[in-house]
Amino acid sequence: MTVGQQRAWEEHWPRLGRTVGELPAGPLDFTEWFGREAPVMLEIGSGMGETTSQLAAAAPELNYVAVEVYDPGLGQLMLRAEKLGVENLRLLHGDAVVLLTEHVEPDSLHGVRLFFPDPWPKKKHHKRRIVSPSFAKLVASRLAPGGTFHMATDWENYAEQMMEVCSAEPALKNRYDGWAPRPEWRPVTKFEQRADVEGRVSHDLIFEKQS
């Protein structure tokens, strides 16, 4: 970690962050943690935090939660949030599947965002991709009715896999007839910029929890 990222951990983590593996058994009380009741948006894989900090800053009405396994990324996210004066952001270090399974109540989330997850491009590694039938079922179970599962990827065969998997989950319905239009509010990530340079098209998918 850089000196700045280390400082962010020391100064901000005690207030903003928790480790998934150290959470007490049962659902996490987001209302208590944020000190207010508001819709909870969960972003899985916040990377270096550039997009996450901007999205949280742009939606102060949401309790914005980011879960990430990469320590320097969480440090950088805290630095970015500090710079933007973001108050509605909390961080979780650890496995999103464990978090959703053990610490998030059913029918409770306003939305789940998964932007540019690890594509595991080699065919033999496709089984490591996070979007699978069991994962789609888990996310759907944690969304409130009408809540959204928004994904984006620049790997076409992963986008097709996401579409196939989520379309087959009975609790989810595609908000669009096919790919979602790219939302203007979603910042362009460095991954997306690189994909554009390399000739890959990014796809957004937005599925909604059926009531």
From TrEMBL:
Recorded metabolic or biological pathway in which this protein acts: tRNA modification; N(7)-methylguanine-tRNA biosynthesis
Keyword Transferase tagged: yes
Keywords: Methyltransferase, S-adenosyl-L-methionine, Transferase, tRNA processing
Gene Ontology molecular-function annotations: tRNA (guanine(46)-N7)-methyltransferase activity
Domain of life: Bacteria
Function: Catalyzes the formation of N(7)-methylguanine at position 46 (m7G46) in tRNA.
Protein name: tRNA (guanine-N(7)-)-methyltransferase
Species for this entry: Amycolatopsis nalaikhensis
Organism phylogeny: Bacteria, Bacillati, Actinomycetota, Actinomycetes, Pseudonocardiales
Encoding gene (name): trmB
